[in-house]
Predict the structure.
Amino acid sequence: MGNKFSDNVMANISRVDGRAKVTGAAKYSAEYDIEGLTYGVVVGSTISKGTISSLDTKKAEKADGVLGILTYLNVPKIAGYEGVSETGPAGLKIFSNNKIFFDGQPIAIVVADTYERALYAASLVKASYVKEHTDTDINHNLEKAEAPKGRKDYSRGTVDAYKTAPVIVEEEYIVPYNVHNPMELGSTLAIWEGDDKLTVYDKTQGVKGSQHTYAALFGLKPENVRVISTYVGGGFGMALRTWPYAAGTAIAAKLVKRPVKLMLARSQMFTQVGYRPYTIQKVGLGATKEGKLLGITHHATGVTSTYEQFTEGTVNASRFMYACENVNTVYKITPINLGTPTWMRGPGEATGTYALECAMDELSYKLNMDPLQLRVLNHSDIDPEQNKPWSSKHLKECYTLGSEKIGWSKRNPKPRSMRENGYLVGYGVGSGTFGAYRSPASARIVLHNDGTVLLQSAASDIGPGTGTAMINIASVMLGIDPVNIRFELGDSNLPNAPIQGGSGTVAAVGSAVHDACEAIKSKLFELASSTENSAFKNATPDKVTYNNSGISYQGASVPYNEILKQHQLPQVELSIESKGNAEMQKYSMYSFSVSFVKVYVHPLTGVVRVKQVVSVVDSGKIISPKTAESQMIGGAVGGIGMALTEEGIIDHRTGRYVNNNFADYHVPVHADIPDIQVIFVDKPDPITNPIGTKGMGEVSLIGFSAAVANAVYHATGKRVRDLPITPDKVI
Ligand code: MOS
């Protein structure tokens, strides 16, 4: 262990919970079986706007095994519903009245002694409605679009300066509805002990966030609510908040006075847990004949629900991605009769960079210039939006590393000029960026006298490998073999950690683990140097090393377990909170990525196959190389889905999804995924946090769909500006 964490070479350890996950030993929220368990099934509205005029639950109540049916007619008093209008702590105030805001909105939860009986009884609930006119087509709702509360248009220099530039691109780009569709369905198991103690096994990306939501909903002290989420089968953003179905499950458990388990059906994952909002974007770019950007204008309008304002950073990257004096952005949202959208896989930035990076590609062809060269020429050396230096930025290195790997220089830049095996061949590039955030987080560390270490934090792992990264940090810092370190997460009783979102877990929780290891090393040093005849009497903390599970100084060394035994201590432990400092304010902190893709396009059918991917990332120090590589591959897979196959289709007359299943909503499958090569710049950021990381989850996908669209243009000469790039649009 060097004195600086970032000097360490990180071990390439495998996912610590991989075995549990692939053998079925890992227990997901809906897999807990407890005494007195009952099963809930959501009955969804069949209209998307209006009111319930009558609700007939009599037949369902008489069905075998039914224990109760929660509706707005029998909802118990909910503290979090008092004094607020349509929305409460968990979004829509579910079951608080007869109003309908979207198709599939829960109108009842049927609880029975078995799942099958609950499902059958749910089919017997009959509702009549007073329907109101609905039209979920964004194009018919644009006049209602406005800036979200508290968000202002952005501009520096001259507004719409691109219009007077010698070379202009002005195009419209569309990102359709994308639905998260993780493997694990939304699920909640709620257990009440009396009226004021609630335990929830919950599919969530943040146990602490869920704990506070349930506490606010039922007017309980947070310590009276325990949320457990040990394993999560993917999230992609859908479990970043507590949704009405989950609130409804806890209310139903209160009503029937039994524990209730509720798992959504796949079709309900389309309506109940958010989605990437349909977004229309207009991008204007103006440049000199030599390719210097003179103006960037980026307008975006996305949808939100009629009861909440969801906003994301769709236009934000356009303000700083390139050096340009004149930039203006406008962001609007328009309410339609769907549930509230939410962050999904790289959220707004993925949507926004699709437009920006396609427009840059279009500009490069107008300039007759290499699209990579155009990007390098307009590279922003400082953050032009905040006028601050970057904490670190190795984007140019990303361009170089990736272009060498994919053989960029060997391509014929002329569109529709390359062929292989009867296919049109295209190469495309897209760059991405995402904020490097660091939330406060806490960790507890316990060093046992058998030499093993336990780390604890209320963090989550929706797939990236949180525990693996944390164990890797502790392993290099303490010089302990990873097999002797355990990391516990996913329980709100553990020390505070932020929600797993915005690519912030390693920065936040990893820093807490780092600080906890530092603190325990000091403690061990103190203990080691305080024994009689200690070989460490004359040592100073900076002169000793920590490796092979012990402390060494000038040839003398003593194992940690010996130190504890000498002091008759069964264990040493401590908890620590870690957070950012004022120094960070002086810098602009972002991760950067560049995606290169090679596509084959069938000249007759227009089918696009991604043949090769090179993903390069500057996300600071790489903590856990193997799981980080998997994370980058995951981003590319999501990017292929976003680019080529994923699209939620809604019948706007009813506001209802017509492809709410995996047969009709196409997520990429193995056969769609080529060789994906990942390259890490792997240079520690000196500012962001003590371990030098910048976050990777989102930036792995941001800019990817543009790379595919640009490759399709290079292959075919056809520019597709509305995702996904399906064969009908290519031919
Ligand atoms: Mo991520 S879209 O913040 O789960």
About this structure: Residues 205, 235-237, 240, 343-345, 347, 501-502 surround dioxothiomolybdenum(VI) ion (CB under 6 Å). The first strand starts at residue 38 and ends at 44.
